[in-house]
Amino acid sequence: MRCAVISDIHGNYEALTAVLRDIERFTIEQRVSVDAVWCLGDIVGYGPQPRECVQTVREICAVCVAGNHDWAAIGKLDLDEFTGVAANSAEWTSAQLSPQDRIYLRGLPELVNAGEFTVTHGSPMNPIWEYLTSALAATPNFGAFETPYCLVGHTHVPTIFLLADDVRPAPTPPPILTEARTSGFNPGDSDLASFPDIEAIPLSASALCEHITPAPGLWLVPEHRRAIINPGSVGQPRDGDPRAAYMIFDSDLGFEFRRVEYDVATTQQKMKEQGLSPRMAARLEKGI
Ligand code: ZN
Prior knowledge:
Helix content is 31%, strand content 19%. With 288 residues, the chain is an alpha/beta fold. A 6-stranded mixed beta sheet has the order 3-2-1-11-12-9. A 6-stranded mixed beta sheet has the order 4-5-6-10-7-8. Helix 9 runs antiparallel to helix 10. Mean pLDDT is 87; it is low at 174-203. Zinc ion is lined by residues 8, 10, 42, 67, 69, 154, 156.
């Protein structure tokens, strides 16, 4: 099985079409087929072509989950939860969408199980909102899904969280695994006490879970290890590399992280023409 995983397109149709061309190039060069394209949410928001992006995802993606910006644009989330720029962009996006686009976005699930994968936008514990930016945040999430792998987006940064062997974290964050407390682990405090393996492990979450920033190229999952994997963002990368990010999973080979150049200036020009945030447009060329 081979599938392409895209996320956080954010209305950037130039970036999306560049990625789709790259998938086509991959199939020709490797002489293989890509069986499916999956999308991890945030099809819209910030970018100048939400409608084209929603229509493309509707046509090509066998799996797609809801992102916070998708639901903000159709009024399913309260705009008070968003920053001023994001709320303004959600209102503008809302006015661009067709009734069919709105029905599609409204019906997107928060979480999907697909073979070896759990697929969601933020995290299995909080599919719409949680940002998995650290081992501390990721570790309890391994207790909230059953499959070997979980695919997430939302942070716009290609990331792998690799769980230590033989660990079964609790599905809810015990006191030690919150941002506020980073020391003082006491197994008696939490559900972790029911997993004897963990008692023997040193205290920090990083001992339970490796936080890897993958370079472009192939990454093989060590045998019998579970991972939460973020392919990065198609339309608004935030890891300092402005190229569109996505991933191809091959069940025989592993995860290939890919970057694709696209015409950033054209997207910026379209944002300008639509009166969208100049600051968000400027960020695209730096990938921040
Ligand atoms: Zn996003």
